[in-house]
């Protein structure tokens, strides 16, 4: 009896969960499907669109019109570069905050987060002038610096909450054994912190990949990432659904695939101290 | 406790991050502050004159300002409500045993990876377009008049789009929190005859409070700056129906090329953001500190 | 220094310059419109002639493009060697000295061949500051089959009364045919381009001679009332979000009876590859109200070289090529005369081959019917048909456009929208210190 009831329940939960998951995923699925249709078919009613012949013409056109591989490489370099740089700066800071908390730690942390609330559009002109004077316009270096600063608060905070969960007793024990600060970090903390660092890295690569204001404003061609690639397919003259779908698919596919494969690592550290 | 030595070391370790963020905040911000007192049109360089508080006066008395303020609040609160309530429900569901958990989780998390520009373009054109969009096709198939989302419910449509992007994030955090819930305690309560509802209220909810706080904090930071979605879908309209503060600042400085006015708006936005930050800090201080 | 040494040095400098010109890469910012995308496809032809110049394209959506190039040129960022700019920017930027003069283009460029109306808008103090890539006015495009079904004949020069009558008779909402499609999306280059031009034919104007905003005038009231009546009764759903592209898509799918918009749309709606109504489209001049002005605008997308560019010579060669007669022939040979960028050269309209294109004559007549220096019935202090060529206009135009877009969406009455437009414009003009 009990087993039967639980099976029934499992079937029901499965059905509901799959339906909801499908609905949430549907816009992405639809975009991908539409990218394999011709422009004329893409605007047909849903059923007719599905039944129309498949075609690669949109991909071919996007390929001839833009240099996808360059935009892609720029996105990779910028998002990875800025995340790694942010980690290098944030790991010591987060470690210190977590294990040697002072009276001010919490305030510093909140202040860091509040810098993220500064509206980017308000400081565009100053930033443009600064970038011009330092010769950073349209360079990957410039974007790496900006995105590092933008994501630094989140990185510090994520790592801080993760480090805080590492029990202090382990450190005490290590200290008793005569470990100094350096070996304490390298041999004791780091191994325990790797999952947290990995998940921080993933989240920030995603955020940097999808950042669409600075990446668009401060680049022209040489350093332009995928956000700019998309900007040349939004609302052109004539029909554009299929081409827009193809370009969108190409822009989100890499990060979607990365996200899916590393989902477990991402989730593991994505608690921001929410779990005690 | 910590020695003097380790305190000094800690300070050294924190300082690079603090100094960098301080620079990042102070340099552009002081330039913005300076510009905000100038009459500075981007198209007329070299004609800057001191404007005193004129720019602030015009920004704050702009009829769009108050609607932008309330739109910002509605947008943030609306998305938070949807994602928190939806996230809790979804997390409870996904916490049950069922077939294909891995695949379902992959599908649910997907919107979080999509660029805001892309998701806004997709929703606007492929779904909400009143002639060729999916919703219009469905309405027509049902014999109804297609609803024009972006002109008749612009803010609600944007809330929907943004909530779609952030729901996975909330779900993931809440699900992780849920999975750390003490099973034994749950079972003990069940033995004692506590109803499902009572168990939810007295065990699950308190356990999730911290997670909800985190979701609210992180999302608020990002939601205050929602911009790409508005730019792509409605351009802040019709009228100012979907203009938020960020978009208003954008319109001032980059559509009107009024750098002075835009800078004043930027400063106002920073002040407002800091009010929110203080408020959040209070909340977090209460909830997050062990 | 003797003369000879100086000459020698000069020669060296020239050689140095010409070697520097070898294998240069110029960055060209452009809009993602069809004609520009076609030009990108013709780069092999360009490189066959100029193997030393590599062109790096930055193709962006119009609003993003405008904002990026303006930020760059105003801050002297120096990111672009060639910029695609509109007729609105050209005189303002030219006056600032931001653009390289194109007066020294080679003789075979034949500057005098450019259409006078277009060329006039690009000349600042006798200097040509930008070269027109394509020019456009606006006109009525209509479905000949639906017009016939409605029992009407479109005159070559219709009135607004006729348009209203035709819109009513052509509308068949059950079949998803809407009598008229017009721009509703807010923006100075979107709904305000159409509405300002329409207002001109109603005798309305943006400012009087003292730079006082005129939205409280009966002429504006009549314009907006008629516009709203047309669109709410006979327009497509969601019109307040429709710009050029959205309406084009609607017309191509056969959902519009009439569409008053840019003349360049003609080549899209008659293109059988993308348009389901390609063989059923007729053209007429933009409507009037018998006041002597028609509701059509004048616009051109132009190529200009920012003064900060390090590669002016290469950029000039590119601009000259892209706006030359030869370019028109290259496109014609590859894609047919109907796909040639229109509206810039007199010789194109004298070409018997081009005269066979169904919309050629109407385009030229429309362009000639617009006069940027005398846009409306009364005398005005500004230049520009569907815009006012002052730096403040872009912001004001967009804010006013928001009001009318809200009126179209039904969230505001026509009176409130006009009052809000008037209040906003007065405020901004006072702030900018007009009258100057």
From TrEMBL, chain A:
TM ranges are 12-33, 76-96, 108-131, 143-163, 184-209, 240-261
Give the matching InterPro entries. Answer: BP-dep_ABC_trans_perm (IPR050901), MetI-like (IPR000515), MetI-like_sf (IPR035906)
Q: What is the protein's membrane topology class?
A: Multi-pass membrane protein
Name all ABC transmembrane type-1 domain ranges: 72-262
Localization, per the record, is:
Cell membrane
Keywords noted in UniProt:
Cell membrane, Membrane, Transmembrane, Transmembrane helix, Transport
Q: Which GO terms describe its cellular component?
A: plasma membrane
GO terms (BP aspect)? transmembrane transport
Sections of the chain in a coiled coil: none
Keyword match Transmembrane helix: yes
Keyword Transmembrane among UniProt keywords: yes
What SUPFAM superfamilies is this protein classified in? Answer: MetI-like (SSF161098)
- What family is reported? Belongs to the binding-protein-dependent transport system permease family.
Entry protein name:
Sugar ABC transporter permease
TrEMBL record, chain B:
Spell out where the chain crosses the membrane: 12-37, 73-94, 106-123, 155-178, 208-228, 264-284
Say where the protein is mainly found: membrane
Its membrane topology is listed as: Multi-pass membrane protein
User: Is Nucleotidyltransferase one of the keywords?
Assistant: no
GO BP annotation list: transmembrane transport
Record Gene3D superfamilies? MetI-like (1.10.3720.10)
Keywords noted in UniProt? Cell membrane, Membrane, Transmembrane, Transmembrane helix, Transport
Q: Where is this gene product found?
A: Cell membrane
Give start and end of each ABC transmembrane type-1 domain: 69-280
Query: Which family does the entry's similarity section mention?
Result: Belongs to the binding-protein-dependent transport system permease family.
Protein name, as recorded: Sugar ABC transporter permease
Automatic annotation (TrEMBL), chain C:
Keyword Ribonucleoprotein in annotation: no
Q: Which family does it belong to?
A: Belongs to the bacterial solute-binding protein 1 family.
Could you tell me the superkingdom of the organism this chain comes from? Bacteria
Location within or outside the cell: Periplasm
Name the UniProt key words of this record, in alphabetical order: Signal
Query: Which Pfam families does the protein's record reference?
Result: SBP_bac_1
- Record-linked Gene3D superfamilies: Periplasmic binding protein-like II (3.40.190.10)
Q: Does the keyword Signal apply?
A: yes
Q: Which InterPro entries match?
A: Bact_solute-bd_prot1 (IPR050490), SBP (IPR006059)
Name under which the protein is recorded: Sugar ABC transporter substrate-binding protein
Q: Which residues span the membrane?
A: none
Hey, what's the signal peptide range on this chain? Answer: 1-23
GO cellular-component terms in the record?
Answer: periplasmic space
The protein's predominant localisation is periplasm
Species whose genome carries this gene: Cereibacter changlensis JA139
